[in-house]
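Work Package 3 (structural annotation) set out to generate three-dimensional models for the target panel prioritized at the project kickoff. During this period the team completed the workflow that converts sequence records into discrete structure tokens, so that structures can be stored uniformly alongside our sequence database. As a representative example, we reproduce one entry of 665 residues exactly as it appears in the project archive.
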Amino acid sequence: MRVVFGVLGPVTAWDGTGDGTGGAVDLKGPRHRAVLARLIVARRRVVPVTRLVEDLWADPPTGAVGALRTFVAALRRALEPERPPRAPARLLVTEGPGYALRAGSGAVDAWCFERTVAAAAALRPEDALAGLEEALGWWRGPAYAEFADEPWVRAERSRLAELRLHAVERRAEARLALGLAAEAVPDLDAHVTEHPWREDAWRLLALALYRTGRQGDALAVLRRARTLLVEQLGVDPGAGLRRLEADILHHAQHLDPAGRPGETVARVWARATAAYDRSVPSAARARLESTVGLLRGLAVTGGGGLQAAREHRVEAIAATEELGDAELTARVIGMYDVPAIWTRADDPGQAAQVVAAAERTLAALPPGGHEAARARLLATIAVESRGTRSARGPQAARQAEEIARGLDDPTLLAFALNGAFMQTFHRAGLASRRDEIGAELVALSTRHGLVTFEVLGHLIRLQARSALADFPGADRHAAAADRLAERHELPLAGVFTGWYRALRLDATGRAPVTEVEAAYRDAAARLDGAGMPGLEHGLLPLALLCLRLRHALPVRAGEHTDWGPYEPWVHPLALLAQGRHGEAASVLRQVPDPPRDLLFEALWCLVARAAVALDDRETMERALTALTPAATELAGAGSGLLTLGPVSRCLGDLATALRPRETMR
């Protein structure tokens, strides 16, 4: 059970998401709640028993320490009901001279509130408004409501209350930036009535009134603010209020309401597309190239955009081939240089159609020249052949890279390197090679402003550094990818960095299993509607299986679990978990080699576990041979999504199981 704590109001806890929809956890009596609240205030730090006793009782009774231990024991039972008897607590822990609550960063509503408010300053107004609206909705009353008189919580309550007022004002600011002045007025009016000494709130209210055409009301608000400040506090209004009053009186141009962000963009788009429709004949070949340019932009938006781009791309290629112009077809196929990071095609049928069209076009190009077009077609074949066992993919990748390095075309070289990356899975243990490709992509793209390929390079390096257990290095690349994605509106990058952070939490072993499971589920939720079925299908069950195996927990493998494309390599273990050893042995003997992709090592390790459990020596030897080149890597971590732990551990288990048995005497 994942527990989420609420202190923005009465102290409480839920199992589930923390949005109030999960069941409430019974926290027993007021002293129990006080212990929990005191530990939350400490923010994961240890609070000595002596300090807890002093904070809980003004005059500690005899036996206070024993009573405190009783409260802690009851809280542990409530917070970790599934913990086996005598197993150490993972959430409310004993450490040194006292206790600490090892809640995750997202497990306390106040901590989430702080993070959301801080992040809003760097967001676009629409994103900041959405985040602040949600965060302010988490408040159910004054923070730590039932402990308002306790000295140990006083500073924290004041800090959170101030942060809430700041959030209300930043929400109003975001509304004004979005042209929503009328919506901002009621909340600001109530805000200044309740907190009349906040000058920035008066300024925002006056500005909101002015932007709704109520100049007189805006000036009246500023006069009211001056009266309160002078008569009750004995201070003059600050420079911001004085300047706003003068600007309102002079109708300063900068006070005029800005249009909603995006309105200008929408207007420009509408005019440009209308002009294109008027000027370019509907049957013009130029429309096919323009279409691919649009599809390339559409693909990086994710969701329905990515799916539509794939479908329309195949249609555009087919329409171009009908014209019988090989050079035009080469341009239409090669222009779609959308960076690809996942090694399983979202639609293998469509990928095969693109590869076939690229091969036909290569054969149809006139001899001599057209080297850039050939390189783009070859890179397309390399990218779209990912995850297959065809020898053509690696061959095309080598040819594309060789041609691209001979031409002065950075974008072409970046595309060719993407193809080279997709074909570095012919054996285990190639994380270092992929890291080199990622490093070259980052350097090349940074020099030439190739943003999407720069993001790709960072994601490749994130994967490679994870495989090599260099999580500080992977962290840097995740952060770089997120910065670029935020600046250039590339939402799909966040899907991969979100999964990486769940993997990191898992691999570093610093969080309880329940928290890691929740992180994986949160990451999987971001895949919903992202338009990447090749990544999404079966991934969450596989990640949770690997997590439970690493912690020697029972495998949850019901007959109806959808393992997606990973089913052949999971099935033997699933049958073993159900006690069906005979079936498991039969299935294991038929297991094919895993596909050559980012989960190659992880799937082999799953097979190896089943083989050891069933004493299948032939399969163990196959797994040992396949995995030995990856002895220094973490199984599966090269995906940036999940891990089964060090490959060396799996190799050790295989070597032990394969030792010759002693002859019976």
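Strands lie at 3-6, 12-15, 47-48, 92-95, 98-101, 634-635, 645-646.
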